[in-house]
Hints:
Elements: H1 4-13, H2 20-40, H3 44-47, H4 49-54
Amino acid sequence: MSLIAPLAAEAATYPMLMPPIGFALIAFTVFLFLGVVTWTYRDVAHRHSQRLTKAGATEHHNAGH
């Protein structure tokens, strides 16, 4: 406990760049943006499956699944 008290007192002397809610809003915005980017790539393989089979790639058959 004696090691934590000086560190906590020292940390209190440096003001934060912004309130903690600001950091949370920035993190939320970044994750929301990454989620939207991920959502835009949904089902891309299905949309391009005809193009792949025309190019000579192997077809996927649903037999055995």
